[in-house]
Backbone:
């Protein structure tokens, strides 16, 4: 039952936001009593913490699956962006923005978890792109990882509209790729920009 509650709560938090969903809403949606939820989670904050951990795990499993498909480095980044777009397509308010605004301590925990895994994925992507001749060989990988991480997460944390955040994220991905790309990489980027709508 605990896993079912986490799964349903995670889904509702992503769709409607961490602030607006109450324990009553989750109980009503699951046709169980609020008392049943409190049996496993003594308060909403604990449920949010466990839900964000579950979402984090799911996101990184999907990213790992995308990486194993052996796309080229630029295509891989567009596929990851598409996955995030699908995941958050029904939310009006950015879940990360809400988390930072209403539950800052949980947000800090989420971010400290994200930084290591995201940075590892970004580094793997840059090295792959260099190897494939899509990114320039002479870039400072560590700096580019940091630039991209700061841009992406600053937008997510400070833009309340999910739609607006996704629009800016596409521009960040283009900006990041152009900064690293070889002429071959620019051609690959242009191809994906034609096929990806906001």
Residues:
């Amino acid at each position: 039952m605990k896993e079912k509650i986490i799964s349903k709560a995670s889904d509702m938090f992503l769709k409607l936001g961490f602030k607006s969903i109450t324990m009553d809403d989750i109980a009503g949606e699951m046709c169980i009593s609020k008392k049943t939820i409190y049996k496993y989670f003594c308060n909403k904050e604990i449920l949010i913490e466990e839900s964000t951990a579950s979402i984090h795990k799911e996101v990184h499993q999907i990213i790992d699956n995308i990486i194993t498909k052996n796309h080229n480095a630029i295509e891989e980044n567009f596929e990851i962006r598409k996955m995030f777009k699908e995941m958050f397509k029904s939310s009006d308010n950015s879940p990360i923005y809400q988390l930072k605004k209403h539950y800052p301590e949980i947000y800090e925990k989420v971010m400290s978890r994200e930084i290591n895994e995201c940075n590892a994925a970004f580094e793997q992507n840059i090295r792959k792109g260099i190897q494939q001749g899509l990114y320039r060989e002479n870039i400072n990988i560590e700096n580019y990882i940091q630039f991209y991480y700061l841009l992406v997460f600053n937008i997510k944390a400070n833009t309340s509209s999910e739609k607006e955040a996704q629009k800016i994220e596409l521009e960040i991905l283009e900006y990041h790729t152009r900064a690293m790309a070889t002429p071959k990489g620019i051609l690959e980027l242009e191809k994906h920009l034609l096929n990806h709508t906001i």
Q: What stands out?
A: Residues 104-131 form the longest helix (28 residues). The CA atoms of residues 102 and 115 lie 21 Å apart. Residues 52-195 form a domain with the Tetracycline Repressor; domain 2 fold (CATH 1.10.357.10). The chain has a mean pLDDT of 90.
